[in-house]
Structures
1.
Amino acid sequence: MADNTASKTKNSALTGNSAMALAMKQIDPDVCAVYPITPSTTVIEEFSSYVADGAVETEFVTVESEHSAMSACIGASAAGGRAMTATSSQGLALMWEMLYIASGMRLPIIMTTVNRALAAPINIHCDHSDSMGARDSGWIQLYSETVQEAYDNLFQAVKIAEDERVLLPVMVCLDGFITSHAIEVLSLITDDEAKDFVGDYTAKHPLLDTDNPASMGALALPDTYMDFKHVQSDAIAASKEVVIEVGKEFGKRFGREYGLIDTYQLEDADVAIVILNSAAGTTRVAIDELRAKGLKVGLLKPRLFRPFPHAEMVEALKGVKAVCVLDRADSFSGFGGPLFNEVRSALYDMEDRPKIMGRIYGLGGKDYTTENAVAIYEALFDVVKTGKIDTLNDYMGS
Amino acid sequence: MTKKSKAKDMPLGGVIPKGGNAHDYETGGWRKFQPVLDSDKCTSCLICWVMCPDSSIMVEDGKMVGFDMEHCKGCGICAVECPDKIKAITMIDQEESKEGGCE
Ligand code: SF4
Ligand code: SF4
């Protein structure tokens, strides 16, 4: 493939969920085990139409719960197939037990996670408490700002997960309703390009290979359990390199390259916001407004959250004087959200580290506006001026 | 400081990449009670052979000849299942049996 040759791209206007369903169709997994839940339902609804139309070869398994959906994916993946699913919120929470089994058994399952708040109170709208709750489950997590990114991430997720240096499950997160149900023009790759990019999956010890019987999910006692976890931990840490490689290859083939983090106007910025997913887009608009007034403001958007791109963050935030980390989830530690804590910890060893504060925003779908972002930047300039943070952590707008 | 992990040489994700190796795992150490055969009573009906969950009834030429003590867990199922009229297996305390003879 020639460099920077845009493939026979086709532009199309799709919702985030339609784009994910289309990507799944183009990947054509062996097994898709699902249980629908808002706001991820239409991913599966549309994918089931592809199944009904015979557009894919996929074995489509409708199960009785998300716990079963993940269990069936684990079985399918252990059998040697490429398994995919999608979920949100309580559905992800119900998969809990099985998430750890998928990663511990080193099964490259791919899941679309359409981010939604967790009950109680019941709420169907966007925040990141679902996927943040799964952050220690051993899954690689990619976050997506736009429909285009979510679509592109799903293909890359397959390649990352199945790389023999990785062999771990990957979830691709996108914001419920904001991204999942909003129509956006995106550039699509063709079915052939998709197939060629993800390639075939050949499992090392497929259970269906009856000539070479294997057992999976065995017991490991104190003499070996910790060693298995150690290897798993090294594997997810090392997967960063594969994420970078795959992002580069995607860029080479389709003209859109991806890294571990994305920045906007950060190079000479005095103050910066760190934020995940769709709210990064809103922040970019606020940055344009403030830059027009000559204010040096910038953005850091992690694309990869698991493993955590700590070194890349330190590099990107060099020279920045004050940072606000915005979390769309609370960890109920009394000490800010998960992203805040990890960014703050990553920057601890910096010589000239910036002042860092945390704000929780947008829970249960509460709007995050350009005015909100502007107010944060103003507060950050105050911190730079006074050299002091008044309130380290707070809820924004409530 | 960091010891090289043993699991680096182990199959990924704890998979057991070969079949038929359950025999290599000795479960006899779990035993609290031990089956003892009265071969005078035993008719070699082999009901115990069918019922033993650990394939620990040893049979030669169609005759029950004893127990595989490396794998017998001492569950006592064989003693219960041996027909009422025969009752050729008794379970005895493993420790007592050691005191009684093995040591
Ligand atoms: S069940 Fe009793 S009689 Fe039958 S083979 Fe076993 S020990 Fe002998
Ligand atoms: S005690 Fe249990 S394990 Fe041992 S031989 Fe009898 S049935 Fe088998």
2.
Amino acid sequence: MELTGAQILMECLKLEGVTTIFGFPGGAVIDIYHELPNYPFKHVLVRHEQGAIHAADGYARATGQVGVCLVTSGPGATNTVTGIATAYMDSIPVVILTGQVPTPLIGNDAFQEVDIVGITRPCTKHNTLVKDIHKLAYTIKQAFYLARSGRPGPVLVDLPKDIMQAKAKFIYPDDISMRSYNPHCDPHPKQISRVAKLIQKAQRPVIYSGGGVISADAHEELVTLAHRRHIPVTSTLMGLGAFPGNDPLWLGMLGMHGTYAANMAVNNADLVLAIGARFDDRVTGKVSTFAPKATLVHIDIDPTSIQKNVSVHVPIVADCKSALTALNEALKGTAKDVDYPAIRKDWLDQISVWNEAQPLKYKPSSKTVKPQFVVEKIYELTKGEAIITTEVGQNQMWAAQFYKFHRPKSFLSSGGLGTMGYGFPAAIGAQMAFPDRLVIDIAGDGSIQMNIQELATAVCQKLPVKIIILNNGYLGMVRQWQELFYDRCYSETCMEAQPDFVKLAEAYGAVGFRITKPKDVEPVLKKAFAINNTVIVDVRVEREENVYPMVPAGASLADMLLV
Amino acid sequence: MHRHILSVTVENEPGVLSRVAGLFSGRGFNIESLNVAPTLEPDVSHMTITTIGDDAIIEQIVKQLRKLITVIKVVDLTEHKAVQREMALMKVLAEDRNRAEILRIVDIFRCKVVDVGHGDLTLEAIGDFGKIQALINLLTRFGIKEIARTGTVALKRAMQD
Ligand SMILES: Cc1ncc(C[n+]2csc(CCOP(=O)(O)OP(=O)(O)O)c2C)c(N)n1
Ligand SMILES: [Mg+2]
């Protein structure tokens, strides 16, 4: 029996285990939408395609599975570009299905035609225009395979309308094998034993873990390594949650807004184990002074990440899980010969001294609400078990600093691209995957307005997402830079005219609260978390609060501005 | 900074050239020459790319190329013994008083005269990058009106000691 292209697509998605699709219809995908009701997918109709791609991304980050986004040609496709780049920078598996004009019209500047494959070439892991219905099933299967294997990433498939209408026999390939793509997985045994030796000898080791540990599901192996060998752990923004934020060996995040202890530890370490991280400039500060006393070990699945920004002594190209498993295996039994607690004692004592001297802190106030206080309260009330998404700016950094993540895949934030407007749609994606978990977007008043239209989506889907706006009336992070480095000239960062967020919530059928006093923070948050509806809490916070510590861009990690 | 010749085998698919070229421009690598041609396998194409960079840059270029899904194989021929050739067609101003000397150079460099006009000669030269460069240097003083070069193609030598 022959199926139409649209039916073949649906069959493929079913076989890939897709349950949820985030999308928005249009002329070029009308055939696909026509088939949709015949299949058991949950479709989330967004209000802007950027919402669809971020939601698919949030779904993927929260579950570890491939997120799926379906949009029409032309403007539908271009509206997803920011979200595709966001997913690409953070290595998130998403499959983007875009409609395209019929093949005979391609290249003719047809209505709603855009070369989306050309546009997204540099921000997808791979992309393909399907020109032959007989290649459709293979291309879809390949897209999912590429998105989730190796270093994950977004894959786009462009689907011309006539291909969706054409008919062919549906044959789904059993598996994909490509001569040009073999994601290398297992670590080189010699390199692993070198690292094992380094760990046994090191007096001042630090683990610097990144998003790769989370995407490889290697958090348990990470905890085992740190606990058994008494190694303190810091992580990038992307790595938060892989190591429990309430563990005594946890140093906090490192880098530009990292903790004093984490940055000092890296600065004084004799061994740095970089695992699934990529030495981003926000992490290293001035590269030439990064970890100046350390032997650097770098485990990453992507060879291009290794020796790119920093030259390392022991490179290991491998999946983080298999590398950590091999490393734990290689270290088995070494506790007989190496007294780990003893050789690390001075180092861990030193770290405690740093921690006590400069913990994360802020000046509490009984008059104005401190944004850090709000995040602390959110942490207390949710016991570190909520899924937290963030927007971008100060709100994001305070969330990263003051919420202690107890488990992986519970902090969803645009790290590499820093996309304002990410957090709310990502929360929608996460809530679709986990209807019973508390999903909270820690937002800024600027960022939330970039995808505020998704309130309609959340309300319509009955998603109890909580948006906590740390409302400082500023594009706060930019204002902070202007204050510190640009003579306090607040050029275009003051958001004077704002909507009434409470009324706005109500207008959409959600619930709105406003907090202006510190004493209201806890009771109102409690109330908000208990409501089974989308809620906005507009928290009027101290307007010119800054994020500290801060390593100015281009400075060494040791040169932190402290509170 | 050295000149490297990269031999890149790719799937013969639409867009593959743009992926490779986009990688160079997007990451600020430079392409000195780029040659693309079919191979004996219909679905495989071969590119020869010459580029300039220090070791770290070349390492990144090679890794980034390998990371492209449609790239099958990348070899840095600079690390091997390789035969390299390039062809250049040059239209050289040849006034009567210079003609003899130009022909002498043609002889020494084992080029061919492939077209003759009233005041010019079109030469075909084949050789490695250095030879073509030397020839251009010599002919410049007569005046080169037009030039078309293929860019380097190269193959690993059979004997690699
Ligand atoms: C789409 C986009 N545009 C611009 C920026 C630059 N930017 C970074 S942080 C920031 C301020 C964000 O303001 P707000 O959401 O209110 O957060 P706050 O820093 O005040 O917590 C801006 C404009 C960005 N990251 N993303
Ligand atoms: Mg703000």
